Amino acid sequence: MKLTYFKLILLIFSSSLTWGQEVFEREHLVHIRSKNRLIQEKKTLKDLTDEKCFEGKYFKIVRQTDKQAICLEQDPELVFKAANVYYHLTLAREFYQNLQIPNSNLDRKITIRIEQDRQYSETLQFRGEMFSQANGALTIGPSEDHIAHDHYSWNEEIWFFVKKRVTRANPLRQAARVVNQREFKNAISGNLLLYDFVKVINSWTSGQLNAYRLEFHLYSMLFTVAAVELMPRVISLFGLFPQVYFEDTAMIPEVIYHEYGHIALDHVFGHKMSSHLSEGYPNLFAGMIAQRDRLAGNNRGVARGTQAKRANARGLYSLTEEFVQNAAFGSFTYALLTDIQENLGEEGLPILIAALKHLSHQSNLKKDFPRAILRAADEISQNPRAAKLRINQSLKKRGL
Ligand SMILES: [Zn+2]
């Protein structure tokens, strides 16, 4: 009995005192997923080193370009956001701790900027006030010694930009312009009408034309005219509505997991360049943390007009996957990695992690990645031949 009490006291003592630094826990409302919706729920924030502010052993949450952490007495909306970011970053960190990726440094203390509205500068950290930025998130690397002077230097940081409503022309507008052209309409209706006309003539010459058939083809022709004349008008009507886009990334769990992935994997991919692999790996892991196969979809109220990344996206490899735009916003690599992981079963995750050792920010998807993953299978699989066969299956399926 005495021993149990002793253990209990020891447990409390050791959990609140780590490395001589006192840490706190605090309950806060955060966003969590319930099926496909984001709902608010009370969760415990761990490893806080400040009783009243959002500063902990691993994360310091600040507003915009501030130096000090956000504190409880500040705007409730800001506090909610800070708590949300802190909570999900902690989840991500614990997940990566369990992955045990060699050389991954998860014990650094990272500054997190929410409501950031400034562009990033490699020399000054923040560009001037004229250079504003909104929507989206960014992970930055530490300042380089030769660039930043002492008081300008900074370490790795994650920025969640301020949400801003942006409208852009509806892509249907362009489509409407095409389908409303007389030539286009004539070509379509001409072909369809001709089809019915030929059918009627054929039936007639073969003596099979009856009232029912005639009526059918007349209706069909009527429908053709109505569709070809009306549909373009409907399309142009919808094209008049501009598309609305905004994104409050600090409120979307999967975006937070993704950004933390850039920190956990920066010994492999760095921060300078965004590539299919440097974006695909964090997406794979973000999906595992979130236990979803859709990243950053279903974000009513928090984001609009954004494209979800899908683990089951189809599509074959094309050269465009290698470049920034597709790499950062596409689903190709995420789907490819998911496919390999599932195809390999239990060995999937260890092999994908082992492949990281053979990758860098310069690795391309077409040649370097297959080489790295096959090599990893050779190194750690119980049955390398079978594993490589499965990997090749997955690669082939996606045109690699
Ligand atoms: Zn990214």
Mind explaining what this structure looks like?
This protein has 400 residues and is an alpha+beta fold. It folds into three domains: 16-163, no CATH class; 172-241; 311-397, no CATH class. Helices cover 46% and strands 16% of the residues. It contains 13 helices and 15 strands. It has helices at residues 2-16, 76-99, 172-179, 182-205, 211-239, 253-264, 266-269, 276-290, 324-329, 332-344, 348-355, 368-380, 384-397, and strands at residues 17-18, 21-22, 24-34, 37-48, 59-63, 110-116, 120-121, 125-126, 137-140, 157-161, 166-168, 243-247, 294-295, 303-304, 309-310. It has a four-stranded mixed sheet, covered by helices on one side. The chain has a three-stranded antiparallel sheet with strand order 11-12-14, with no helix packed on it. A hairpin with a 2-residue loop joins strand 1 (17-18) and strand 2. Helix 8 (276-290) crosses helix 10 (332-344). The longest helix has 29 residues, at 211-239. It starts with a helix and ends with a helix. The relative contact order is 0.09. The mean pLDDT is 89.
Short description:
This protein is an alpha+beta fold and 400 residues long.
Return the domain count. 3
Question: How much of the sequence is in beta strands?
Answer: 15-25%
- Series of H and E elements: HEEEEEHEEEEEEHHHEHHHEEEHHHHH
Distance between the termini: 63 Å
Query: What radius of gyration results from the CA coordinates?
Result: 28 Å
Q: Overall 3D geometry?
A: globular
In the predicted model, the low-confidence regions spanning at least 5 consecutive residues are none
In terms of structural class, how would the helical and strand content be classed? alpha+beta
Strand arrangement across the biggest beta sheet: 5-6-10-9
Strand tally is 15
Which ions, cofactors or small ligands are bound in this entry?
zinc ion
For the biggest sheet, the summary is: 4 strands, mixed
Tally of alpha and pi helices? 13
The chain-level mean pLDDT equals: 89
Helicity, as a percent range: 40-55%
